[in-house]
Automatic annotation (TrEMBL), chains A, B:
Cofactor section: Zn(2+)
Places the protein is found: Secreted
Any one biological process term the GO annotation gives: purine ribonucleoside monophosphate biosynthetic process
Top-level taxon of the source organism: Eukaryota
SUPFAM superfamilies: Metallo-dependent hydrolases
Identification of the protein by name: Adenosine deaminase
UniProt keyword terms in alphabetical order: Hydrolase, Metal-binding, Secreted, Signal, Zinc
NCBIfam families for this protein: adm_rel
GO cellular component, one term: extracellular space
Species whose genome carries this gene: Pisolithus microcarpus 441
Molecular functions (GO terms): adenosine deaminase activity; metal ion binding
Reactions listed under catalytic activity: adenosine + H2O + H(+) = inosine + NH4(+)
Entry keyword Metal-binding: yes
Length: 523, 523
């Protein structure tokens, strides 16, 4: 053997050893899968030049895995995205239900109820249109409108205007009714110049994220809309090839609005509606297995406040044993309360569950941060010691060799949200994202969308796309294994899980078949 | 033991296990070190609020570890930076000698020689002042000036103007002579709006980097300046507390300019001058041990071209056995030739060294990329298999568990260049940098500055600062260990290395003593 041959042989072995823990290395692939994988790699290579190597108007520097909000329109037009759209995705394990339906649909919903009103901190003008603070909420039927147009020079700041009227009378100079729609929905989501220029760091972008969430929550939390909202979410989700969902629902507010604009609809009713909508959807659709709820509360309360919620969570679990599948704390880990400060109630809650024969596993957010040794980063230690079944984000897990080993050995999957991480400025683009580190260390991963209403990444196709184009190692096969892992690490019981896996494998085979035998659009 | 106590105990053990491989965990610290470390942590915590938590004019979003070019002025004024400036840094192991001296000094040098001329692609005006292409070079004494001012409306594009004259006659509207200085030096470095707005991705910023390097090289490569240049580099380096240097010198051009502007000064003369300057500097200064050279060539040539350089490298090693300490290939790994395509000559070169009893270790750039499985990323496999003694950058090493293990076990240190990585847009800011992953995996690291003339991070203090403020785990102790590692993984022989370590430990103790007993500015 020549020295060069020796080098080449060692090189192959070294790469193999380096990738030994990868999910796409551990599981044997079928010829059909290999063929499809190859085809997808070919399309990716082509489009790296034909799509990402050319100039696009208004996109200063296109590249595969670029900033999502700037690149979304390009992505949507690629052949590769067309392929991914058709792929069955498995389970969606990390999504905040309150932030899933597109702002346009949400606004359309609100406009159909006369109880909805809007107000703004000033007269809306060309100058302040993007900085003014606005609020939308349902009010009682007998509530007298306080003003008629937000753009009238004499509009008294913070006066409520009926939503429809505010839209109709929105100044033509600001685009009239269509301008109103763009204005309101723009405040409910994040645009490129906010994410990548004015709020281009993890601290500031959270401000924008919170204000977008606050603006939409009063529409989502209107009982007649809540019902339609859940239906819409399920439809959008199933349309993207997602077969099963574990949605985080924020139970921090005690009540939502009833049809009359009164804040009096309790948690039990939220979940009754959820159950009704999901049951009906399941009956109608063969392509969707189920949707469950992870009870979440914002990590901003004191220990006593948390205990009230744990009590409530237990009561909901007893009322809806098949729906509630976990408990989590949400909100910016960098600024809010770390798990470390909630240890006593959280430990007690586990013991109580044992005594009462109930199981509400922890599925904690942890390590959604660039910090190293900060409280957000250290949440990872506590989440794991508290027995978390999965980790929400775990962005900083890659810094922790021991914790990665534990996740791998004990099967603690990470709910990785690529586009969310990028828009919230934990990573500047997908090629910088640490996902390959997790994969190469054999940490189980379920790709997730997090808050698609705000990030505009509805479904899982966009996140899958960004992951696929940002790595030469990852291929369609890898995405298939990640989809399988999303099922494996779901909270379904054995029989349901097997059923879901079967559903998925069926659709996967069909998808691969269509892909390689050449649906005209794909070959 | 209560469940909470149990959790707390497990938590301590888990964090310890997670950090077991860290260099600051493996080596025992002295009370003086602990005291100093604590003091520095206190200053850091204070300044996180008093400096980084307040608004600064012209800095839209300050935070610790922020974009260096925007934050540099803030950093320079901090107490913490004052401390780090005084710290002995050990060895500087990754620096491209041709890009070390500040553009201002370089221009000042050039202005002292009448042979220097400048030309530009168009008449320089307010409109094109930042986009025009310019060139500087020495010309023969009898060369007739082709024009007298770059800003005259009648300036014929690409005509040579004597540098001094171009400066004196630079249009007042563009700032006159001072405007000329700003203009030229601006083209030799990278400014915030280039790095963070117009060229804000790894592909485009390399264009700017290359043009900055090309503009200054004709000044650096003028033999009378080369001598002063090296002296200046050594002075700046020693002033920052660096005790020893292994500088990469780019031997891609065969000749540099002589005093008469003729391109006829061969490599042997470059190194003769280097030796003379270093010897003189060593004699004069007790605070500096030595400077050596890593022979480098740009990875843009064919195999034959590389072989010519290997031949030349061997000849230089025989002529300057104490100076040449390694061989490397440089330039953008994403676009230029990967090690894989140079395997045959590189393997043969090693065999030849063995036969001839010469040792020129490989110290390869590898993995300076965000790519995953790309040719730049895969350079890591070949570098390691070719027996590289250290790795230049290795930015993508963190994706490779097996390669990290090899580096740890075989003592292959990474030359990590935090500010370079950030300005070249591999990471958007220091908190996103993968350095903590390397540290937590026990990979030896030597922090380095790379190209301080372009990045404006002269010495090592700025890089040390950015590393220190971007992590709560890393402290002054860690920086001390990194400095020690820079000595341990230098190419010095046993006796020299021991001498250097002794020098460093002496200065370290002195530094700690002054720090804790309270130089007024530090306590």
């Amino acid at each position: 053997m020549t020295p060069l041959e020796e080098h080449t042989q060692k090189r192959v072995a070294l790469i193999e050893a380096d990738r030994a823990l990868r999910v796409d290395n551990a599981r044997v692939s079928r010829p059909l899968e290999d063929h499809a994988d190859e085809l997808v790699r070919r399309i990716r290579t082509e489009e790296a030049t034909t799509v990402w190597g050319v100039e696009h108007e208004g996109v200063p520097h296109p590249f595969p895995g670029m900033e999502f909000l700037t690149g979304k329109d390009i992505i949507s037009r690629t052949r590769l995205f067309g392929v991914i759209r058709k792929m069955p995705k498995g389970a969606l394990l990390h999504v905040h239900l309150d932030l899933t339906v597109s702002p346009h649909t949400l606004l359309r919903f609100a406009l159909q109820y006369s109880s909805f009103h809007i107000r703004s901190s000033e007269v809306v003008t060309c100058l302040n249109v993007s900085s003014v603070v606005l609020e939308i909420r349902p009010l009682a039927p007998d509530f007298p409108a306080e003003a008629s147009s937000l753009t009238d020079a004499c509009y008294p700041p913070m006066s409520w205007v009926p939503l429809c009227q505010a839209r109709e009378l929105f100044n033509e100079a600001l685009g009239g009714p269509e301008g109103f729609d763009r204005w309101v929905t723009g405040h409910m989501s994040i645009n490129p110049s906010t994410a990548y220029v004015t709020h281009n760091d993890n601290i500031r972008i959270w401000d924008k994220f919170r204000s977008a969430a606050m603006l939409s929550i009063n529409i989502v939390h209107y009982a007649p809309i809540w019902r339609r909202y859940i239906r819409q979410f399920l439809e959008d989700t199933a349309a993207d090839g997602i077969l099963y969902v574990e949605a985080r629902v924020n139970f921090s507010p005690r009540y939502m609005f009833d049809a009359d604009g009164k804040m009096n609809v309790p948690h039990i009713e939220w979940l009754r509606i959820f159950r009704q909508v999901v049951e009906k959807f399941k009956q109608e659709r063969e392509d969707f297995l189920d949707a469950k709820v992870i009870y979440t509360v914002i990590r901003d309360r004191d220990v006593e406040g948390l205990e009230d919620h744990l009590e409530d969570c237990l009561a909901m679990k007893k009322e809806f044993p098949d729906i509630i599948v976990g408990f989590d704390l949400v909100g910016d880990e960098n600024t809010l309360v770390p798990l470390k400060d909630y240890l006593e109630p959280l430990i007690r809650f586990k013991e109580r569950q044992k005594r009462e024969g109930v199981s509400i596993p922890y599925i904690f957010h942890a390590g959604e941060t660039c910090g190293d040794g900060t409280k957000a980063d250290e949440n990872l230690y506590d989440a794991i010691l508290l027995g978390t079944k999965r980790i929400g984000h775990g962005f900083s897990l890659v810094k922790h060799p021991k914790l990665m080993q534990i996740c791998r050995e004990e099967g603690i999957a990470l709910e990785v949200c690529p586009i969310s991480n990028e828009i919230l400025r934990l990573t500047a683009s997908m090629p910088m994202h640490p996902l390959p580190i997790l994969l190469n260390n054999g940490v189980p991963v379920a790709l997730s969308s997090d808050d698609p209403a705000v990030f505009q990444n509805m479904g899982l196709s966009y996140d899958f796309y960004q992951v696929l184009v940002a790595s030469e190692v990852t291929g369609l096969l890898t995405l298939g294994h990640l989809a399988r892992d999303s099922i494996t690490y779901s909270m379904l019981d054995g029989a349901e899980k097997a059923k879901l896996m079967h559903m998925w494998e069926d659709r996967w085979s069909k998808f691969l078949g269509e892909l390689v035998t050449g649906e005209p659009c794909l070959n």
